[in-house]
């Protein structure tokens, strides 16, 4: 089943940052699309919930070096 999750992301300061995060999220198995915007800082991810969880996607954001705002 395909689901969508949006994270508020802190720490992105340029288009390179948002591009790096979008690339990292897009390469996660089970992610069908990832849209990252600098202003507002957010990442919207469409994913297959049979293959990846929102928690795993949040860890990707953090592993790239950004913070997810609750």
From TrEMBL:
Keyword field: Metal-binding
InterPro entries reported in the protein's UniProt record: Heavy-metal-associated_CS (IPR017969), HMA_dom (IPR006121), HMA_dom_sf (IPR036163), MerP/CopZ (IPR001802)
Boundaries of every HMA domain copy: 3-69
Keyword Metal-binding on entry: yes
PROSITE patterns assigned: HMA_1, HMA_2
Gene3D superfamilies associated with the record: 3.30.70.100
A GO molecular-function descriptor: metal ion binding
UniProt-listed Pfam families: HMA
Protein name: HMA domain-containing protein
Native organism: Gluconobacter roseus NBRC 3990
